[in-house]
Amino acid sequence: MKYIDEYRDEHIVQSLAAQIARRATRPWSVMEICGGQTHTIMKYGLDELIPASIRLVHGPGCPVCVTPLEVVDKAIEIASRADVTFASYGDMLRVPGSHSDLFRVKAAGGDVRIVYSPMDAVKLARTLPKRQVAFFGIGFETTAPPNAMAVWEARREGLDNFSMLVSHVLVPPAIRLLLGSPHNQVQGFIAPGHVCTVMGYWQYEALCRDFHVPIVVGGFEPADLLEAVDMLVGQLEEGRAVVENQYVRSVRYEGNVAAQRIVEQVLEVCDRKWRGIGMIPQSGLRLREEFAAYDAERIFGVGEMTADEPAECISAEVLQGLKRPTDCPVFGAACTPENPMGAPMVSAEGACAAYYHYRRHSFQPSEVS
Amino acid sequence: MREEQRSIAEMVCPAPLPAGDQVLLGHGSGGKLSADLVHDVFLAAFDNPILARMDDQAIVSINGLRLAFTTDTFVVKPLFFPGGDIGSLAVHGTVNDLAMGGAQPLFLSAAFIIEEGLPMETLRRVATSLRQAASQAGVQVVTGDTKVVEKRSGDGLFINTSGIGVVADGVQLSAHRARQGDRVLLSGPIGEHGIAILAKREGIEFDCPLESDSAALHTLVAAMLAASAEIRCLRDPTRGGLSSTLNEFAAQAQVGIEIDERAIPVREEVKGACEMLGLDPLYVANEGKLVAIVAPEAADRVLAAMRRHALGAQAQIIGSVTASHPRLVTMRTTVGPTRIVDMLAGDQLPRIC
Rounded CA gap, B140 and B51, in Å? Predict the structure, then answer.
């Protein structure tokens, strides 16, 4: 398949790995931000192909993982109502809230539906005029435009039974927080290609400047990621710190301006709590006041709900790249994808889940079962 | 940040959700939840040595005659899909469960649970299709049952079929027989049934139409058994896909399985749909494929026999059985390193982005 096979070609991938080995003269730690990138690294074993001196650490970019506990609780509360049809991307259904998850709500009779696009939820609202249709609008900048578009479209059509539970997060403030931490060990970042497809990469220049750190916008296939690592190692070896774009087949400097415009019109920046990390200032998006009529938190009166977020295993350190999933004493034992104890184990894209699914044989050969 | 100041020892994990307090859709996915349900509820209740073999069919002896007996229930939505419908599927599924025990399928029962309001024409079409599939497979529907449930108590139409077949002398197929060094054979490209159903349900269109691979596999099995007696076991990778079947083999035989990603045939349309939807073809359902574990010296002979049959024309040797990492399936990826192929907990969920 074009744009897939060549990026998974063994010879291309191996030669990129060899190039990294030639270029690297000392140890470097680089972080991939996006959960999709973590998934690819673990799925294909890319960390085994590059020299051990290049440490790949996994960032906080799994939208499912970092959605706060209390937002999951709000979703569960709304979805449990008899008059509500609750629509969500599939992988949010398994995420545990404080006491339940959306699968259990569905099993108990709640009308919970998996959709592939928020526009499908708008369609549901159109076809079920007597029901309240609420969509779980989460994710990074990548899913913000379709979510914003859905609210925009609902207003345009005058649908009064559509709403969205919004808990969007933004990448650059999270990188800024990581870089500002006294414990930071990350020396270069692979920026998330899909986020940058929407937003461009001009926002990342300030980070390079302020922290003298190189950032390479990377794609999601094995060859993409190794090329991005190679570009980062090149910058690090030469002492440069600029934004470079590896994912040129998708990302432009200015991004998708039309998509940015619809986001700007419907959503506004706000402070946001991240599961496993805590509050990050100006790191989220919420509905603008003029779209309050579509705000599920207000419609269903769940805005004030809070949940005590217990410190989940070592997820704070994992999400900041300070520790690897296998450093956790409960990894693979008490904490598994069936019984996740922390954010990075709940979604397939979480760092812990990726380690568990693809690689636990290489870490603890005596304990696999 | 406050989290940074805490040591690991001070951190408290939240209590996990109570497991197993109610049945979830994932319990029907063919993954780990399904296996747990069968083990904890049904094996516990019905425990006996025949059931405990946990193959796709029971083999029972009556006066020296070895009978294969199996049952399956079909709840597919939509009822009609490219390449088949619930009627033909209800025949193929049960015929294949018998065939995987090495049996010649003979007789089927068919039970219909019908939701009130189902158009009579729909029921007639399904019945006709079921009869045609049965006669093509050389089996007869010899008994049946009908129940009608109130509106909203069913989903249009559910069908259960049970089947009986005869196992020839000398044929011994069971996952427990897999040994180190055995080869793993796959009869053709994976994921076609699941993607055809999903595409129809979600309105995804392809340049070349993708059809379900739904088919009766007993003649392919007969050809394989004629080629060699050294076939250890067979299974059709339906719900949960190839990965679940291989994991079941590994768990039952207490062996490890190693496969090579590049050897696994996947059609471009299936690959494309999976990329788009964030799914992995290894977990997508098939209804006309089989996986065989075969002694190494017989593998080429069995492969050749499969390839001579229309339903095995694209058969491949995809891996082997190993003594290292028992109960685990690993795969050499397209770029070199090896990874685990896990059994999913529940259904494969489309990813957010």
Answer: 25
A112 in the same domain as A16: yes
Residue A90 lies in a domain: yes
Query: How do residues B37-60 score in pLDDT, each as one tens digit?
Result: 898 999 999 999 999 888 889 999
pLDDT at B10: 31
Measured distance CA(A45)–CA(A354) in Å, rounded:
11
**Residue A33 belongs to a domain:** yes
Same domain, A321 and A272: no
Partner residue facing B349 (CB), from A91, A139, A360: A91
**B345 contacts in A (CB within 8 Å)?**
94, 337-338
Classify residue B136 as exposed, middle or buried by CB count within 10 Å of its CB (0-12, 13-18, 19+). Answer: middle
Segment B175-192 shows an average pLDDT of 96
Q: What does the alpha-carbon distance between residue B238 and residue B70 come to, in Å, rounded to a whole number?
A: 15
Cβ contact A179:A48 at 8 Å: no
| Chain A residues touching residue B346 (CB < 8 angstroms) | 94, 103
Q: Are residues A182 and A321 in the same domain?
A: no
| Domains identified in chain A, total number | 2
Q: Residue A190 belongs to a domain with what CATH number? A: 3.40.50.11740
The Cα of B277 is separated from the nearest Cα of chain A by a number of Å equal to 8
What are the C-alpha distances in Å from B132 to residues A113, A218, B108, B137, B343?
36, 53, 13, 9, 35
| pLDDT greater than 60 at residue B279 | yes
What DSSP string runs through B295-344?
-GGGHHHHHHHHHHSGGGTT-EEEEEEESSSTT-EEEE-TTS-EEE-PPP
Contacts with A276 from chain B: Cβ below 8 Å: 3
Residue A347's pLDDT is: 76
Whether the complex's predicted ipTM is more than 0.90 is answered with no
Domains and CATH numbers, chain B: 56-167 (3.30.1330.10), 175-340 (3.90.650.10)
User: Would the pTM of this model clear 0.90, i.e. be above it?
Assistant: no
- A136 belongs to a structural domain: yes
**Tokens 């780990």 correspond to what residue?**
B32
Phi and psi at residue A343, to the nearest 5°: -50, -50
Residue ranges of chain A whose pLDDT lies below 50? 365-369
Q: Does B24 score more than 60 pLDDT?
A: yes
Tokens describing residue B60:
């029972």
- Residues A310 and A321 both lie in one domain: no
